[in-house]
Amino acid sequence: MYIHLGQGTVVRSRDIVGIFDLESSTVSKHTRKFLNNAEKRGEVITVSYELPKSFAVCQKKGEKQKVYISQLATSTLFKRSNFLG
Questions:
Q1: So what's the pLDDT on residue 1?
Q2: Considering only CA atoms, which of 53, 65, 82, 51 is closest in space to residue 16?
Q3: How far apart are CA 60 and CA 16, in angstroms?
């Protein structure tokens, strides 16, 4: 199954490691450090230039991780993934 992250960006649901709320998770210095390091390594992909609300960490087997910054809320992404039923 595929999940639309916004603005034409689609990822396979099995490649998703986690989906995180940007506002609440960046309170932690560890999350900010993770995102900063991912940005330095070129792993961050901004899906939309609207106000970001979430980020999804994805990794295909044998490849580098990618961090997608999305304008969609985590609840919307979870609903699209059918994780909530």
A1: 84
A2: 65
A3: 8
